[in-house]
Amino acid sequence: MSLRVGVIGTGAIGRVHIERITNRLTGAAIVAVNDVSRSLAEKAVQDFGINAEVFTSGVDLIRSDSVDAVIVASWGPTHEEFVLAAIAAGKPVFCEKPLAVTAGGCKAIVEAEMAAGRKLVQVGFMRRYDLAYRQLKDVIVNNRIGAPLTLNCAHRAPAAPGFAGDMAITDSCVHEFDVLRWLLADDYVSAQVILPRKTSLCDEQLQDPHVIQLRTRSGVHISIESFVNAQYGYDIRCQVTGETGIAHLAQPISVTLQTAATEQSAIIVDWQERFVDAFDREFQCWINDTLKGEMNGPSAWDGYVVAVTADACVKAKYSGLIEAISLPETPAFYA
Amino acid sequence: MSLRVGVIGTGAIGRVHIERITNRLTGAAIVAVNDVSRSLAEKAVQDFGINAEVFTSGVDLIRSDSVDAVIVASWGPTHEEFVLAAIAAGKPVFCEKPLAVTAGGCKAIVEAEMAAGRKLVQVGFMRRYDLAYRQLKDVIVNNRIGAPLTLNCAHRAPAAPGFAGDMAITDSCVHEFDVLRWLLADDYVSAQVILPRKTSLCDEQLQDPHVIQLRTRSGVHISIESFVNAQYGYDIRCQVTGETGIAHLAQPISVTLQTAATEQSAIIVDWQERFVDAFDREFQCWINDTLKGEMNGPSAWDGYVVAVTADACVKAKYSGLIEAISLPETPAFYA
Amino acid sequence: MSLRVGVIGTGAIGRVHIERITNRLTGAAIVAVNDVSRSLAEKAVQDFGINAEVFTSGVDLIRSDSVDAVIVASWGPTHEEFVLAAIAAGKPVFCEKPLAVTAGGCKAIVEAEMAAGRKLVQVGFMRRYDLAYRQLKDVIVNNRIGAPLTLNCAHRAPAAPGFAGDMAITDSCVHEFDVLRWLLADDYVSAQVILPRKTSLCDEQLQDPHVIQLRTRSGVHISIESFVNAQYGYDIRCQVTGETGIAHLAQPISVTLQTAATEQSAIIVDWQERFVDAFDREFQCWINDTLKGEMNGPSAWDGYVVAVTADACVKAKYSGLIEAISLPETPAFYA
Amino acid sequence: MSLRVGVIGTGAIGRVHIERITNRLTGAAIVAVNDVSRSLAEKAVQDFGINAEVFTSGVDLIRSDSVDAVIVASWGPTHEEFVLAAIAAGKPVFCEKPLAVTAGGCKAIVEAEMAAGRKLVQVGFMRRYDLAYRQLKDVIVNNRIGAPLTLNCAHRAPAAPGFAGDMAITDSCVHEFDVLRWLLADDYVSAQVILPRKTSLCDEQLQDPHVIQLRTRSGVHISIESFVNAQYGYDIRCQVTGETGIAHLAQPISVTLQTAATEQSAIIVDWQERFVDAFDREFQCWINDTLKGEMNGPSAWDGYVVAVTADACVKAKYSGLIEAISLPETPAFYA
Question: CA–CA separation, B69 vs B291, rounded Å?
């Protein structure tokens, strides 16, 4: 009794999800694909040897009787339409971030889903499924370091070739916004963005690094160093200072070498390698939950909160001020 | 086109393999089970909700037309019979260690398999599938530390309640014997066993720790500290000294804490937790290979070599001498 | 040809300096002591078996022909007077921080010293002599991580029994202010102080932790987590993010243990243990320099800059704003 | 009341001791020097600006009324004569290892010292003064890992240009022999030497590495990997497996870098850098003890035990057997 999944968007990220569901995970089969480039969709069918129908229209795919659930991995600006269509069709939908490219779009999805009366939407914030973040959350939940007071995080990548404008905030830090809120089970109340000395090793139009600071309802101070042209590797750090101790996010395993007058271990360079296990767990959980008629992952509401937070950070970046993050109470539907 | 698997032995280890194949891996289904205790077999069917026939006889299960491949996870002394039956039936068989309880039994399997003309047997040496060991092998293969000269290994467990006699060698160090030979792509030529001061924290009949020393054909000196009542945790270490550097087996990830005047990370206590990912990969590879008609894992020959090595270590333990490990040339069939 | 040193202030810190100069360092002898409590001064003479005259007046000690150089380790508010007296007497003076309790007092010292035409004053910022900070500075100077962009520092102590008001800034963070400026060879231009959720494990009048943020002329963003009731230990951290890499301040050596399901190393609890070697080197350098008629340590100007920085931080703490740090150009005398 | 020290041997090691006593330590002055090369002795006087008489004869220096205590840092084969002369003159003598080049010579010194009725001889085994070894000993003494059962040590150097024959044992491992015996407060009963595959990166006449194995009276098994052409650095390791845990010798502090896809810290290359603090403490203690008429460091007996142990190891290297280490009971004089 396999879950019949349709995938909209068969570019880079869509293909890796097709591959994992087909070759490594259990309980689901890709039965339908769609892409703005029909040939790309056909190529995915062929490359992974799947028995999937190629749809010319994403909305048709969603409505097809042969599709039980949908993965949206297309271009960001198209997400809102497809997610709303899936809700309209009453079908579970996994949407890669962003849920929508505006906070308003996210809110529309939230309202549609609440009107539909059932949680159908999961957003692709895979870090919640990363073992290292889970260990860190366990430490906090089990009170091993006391109440959290400050967080010191870093999101570093070797380079960000296509980045422009505020993508460091809207495209990569959104993962931080989601996972830290989940980690603390707390909400953000304000944001400040500091623009340190710029690295000379990137497009001179671009500000890099940013230091993004958030404050939570309970007063926790969060600092995120976003540095997407850090050269040396892809490196995700999170340190929590609590009342009685400090906890640090574990790093990927690496053989340790003593060679050439140094003791050294490897830092990964490719971000996909860092979260490959998290992606696997995320999709296996989504498949299992969906087969049981449940949705326990990051919700449309979480996607909306992240969008509002990103908006406040962008505003703070240009104002230089501490900007409020104003959100309605979490609806009971999502609590 | 799922691989139809029969499982012989539905005790502890059999159950975890049924669970992983059913819930986490892809490409196979458990269609038949057998155990000396029929009720235990029935319980497995029920607990994991699988659609599997319960066989009263392991050999009947092997011969059944509804079974494509067999997993042998029964009591050690029964392995030889079941593996030979699988070979006779021309069916792929995954056999938990030991392949047979005597080197002679292993050799009989090797001969039967060669006579059958096709590699059908894989032995459950899961460490080869552990990412940390794979990283270590990559370091050696890529010549990052030069030619290996010495190995310093440790196999430590918190306690070994059921251990008696030479089980430290024959039951747990066999994993070291297999994985180190694979790591070095070399063969053993002699063994010495040193009996250090005994820990007071175990059955006083038992020698613990042992220091087991092996020499390879190319002259690499291997030392393995086997300490199965080490109290503090389950801890597998492997350090390779090469001509230009040293490499250390990576350890499982753990959040790092600063608390109570210490900086600390967790050491696991349960051995299954240490190798859970390796088991998953081992079985997924076995399923994939078997569906393709291949066998690329630890072979019957590897199981035989390990048995001969264990015999030499037991002999050396009582003689106090350096004992030769005599093996015929690896048959072309297994090279 | 030993340096004849007079010590003003024979309380806790004065005593450890007498002890180190007498028992561990070379080239100097304590020949005179003074304290507001004459009996305390007499006790120091007796306890360390030194051949030193006890002076009733600090100023008399400074002026005595038997004294070549002076160490001021008395109560903070007395420092300014004694340092000015030493300058007036033309004698080298080592002054524990603070140089003076107000920026104005520091400025008066700077002006007196410049008028005297010779650098006579060294301020007790011992971190510059710490090997770990020196290694970190070497990394920056040798361009091993590219130009520094952000600094992430922590100053944590298990508890701060006597702390009140803004002492976290004025009493302990002053060491950060001095050493980071030295590390970067840069000057501060603004300060911001964030007040995170307070720990419940200290006097409820006290804000703890503080997050102190400084910006340098070249745009480096510095964040200092000052947490003086951190319970778990005395822990000084400094991480520099540069254009091509990250560098972390080394921590004191500690035996690593694997025990009780953890891998652990010790964190020191007593701050004096952390910087004992730095103190030794600081005083040995001061003795050697003084014997050569030189002064190469932290200067009166450095003491003044730190005082102005601390004032700006205190102001920022209460305003909640980013406050400017306004300093005149460094006089050529001190460059 | 400075200790007036005469130094015999002003080559490399003699010079660094003159330098440290003159510039860094307290309580002693170098008042006399001697070397087989008079010009080398004169050069030391000049280079370090010391007020020392140059003696043509080492024995004359020892007997001089202006000399309170002697440091022997000359060529190894001359040590025995000078130490015996110092004992005859009733003067404290610090002798760099070896105490004598034969076990018989060491024994003669032991007997002469016992006849003199007072401990006058300290041998230059500086590792006992290394903080990392002291931490490790504290762990054992405080029973933090239970009774020691096995030790796993490594002594690695980048290269050993002048090494020939068995110098790896007789010249460098002697430090291991002394410090491990001190660490365990135990005595050796047998030795075995394993000759692993040789590195290709050294003189092909030389065996390198050696694995030297010792057994103590209480049954502790010690393994020392001596690898003097290890290329990558100077690296001293010591791991103790106890009944309840493992302890590892701390390594020198080093800034940690994240750069070029690696996390790395430095390994030192120059052995003198590794033990510079230990040398300082060793000599300061010797000065302090000598001024008090005491001798608390490694004794002539310790030097003798090391010589007997080295002899057994050399014998074992060529016999391939486990060789007994036979020593008389420790005389009460040295207990």
Answer: 10
